[in-house]
Amino acid sequence: MEVQSVSLRGNLKNGSSTTVPINPQWFFPSDESVDLAVCPIVPSAEADVIGIPISMFATKDVLSSRNVVEGSRILFTGFFYQFPGERKIQPIVREGILAMLPDEPLTTVTGKPGSVYLGDVHIFHGNSGSPVFVDVVNGLGTLGFPDFRFLGVVSGNFSEDQDFNLQIALTVKGTQHANSGIAIIVPADSVKALIEGDPGLKDARQAALRAAHAK
User: Fold this and answer.
1) How far is CA 127 from each of CA 29, 124, 132, 184, 207, rounded to the nearest angstrom?
2) Is residue 186 part of a domain?
3) Domain presence at residue 1
4) I need a surface site. Which of 80, 91, 133, 153 has the fewest CB within 10 A?
């Protein structure tokens, strides 16, 4: 279908929310296996948002230096579409563990082999693009507090398929797709590479910032 308009809803510091029309400019990785899209947006001063600096990215170098392995605690916050909220958006937070750090390519949601992480955390519709965070000290940091870093973004999940055969007035055959609970995560490295490596995206970010400062 043709997209005729796009709007963005965001929470405000006063406890309400607002919806504004936007004209998104999307940027994509050159690697077609990476399920990722970036649109530069500068929120207003009234918006209730927190940015994630590049220094908080849990890149592969960070994971290696912090000895982050399978079993490390992860969590994500995402949109719970069953409850969009009347006054403001109510995000949902879910927790799980890092299930696999593959050292070889896996088939991504684009159908091509690429680099992804797997998380044992239940995701559903509305969670795609949600930020995933990993505890890089597994609760053993200062005073026992966790140290969460940006691991990547939710891309999809694996399903457990089961053939079924229903006998009603007419015979119905098909395949049932159940959520396996294994989420596919696009690594922070891919996000960082796109943000820092695409000249067009850099120019668009600077243009958006200049326009925001001019208001």
Assistant:
1) 21, 6, 10, 11, 29
2) yes
3) no
4) 91
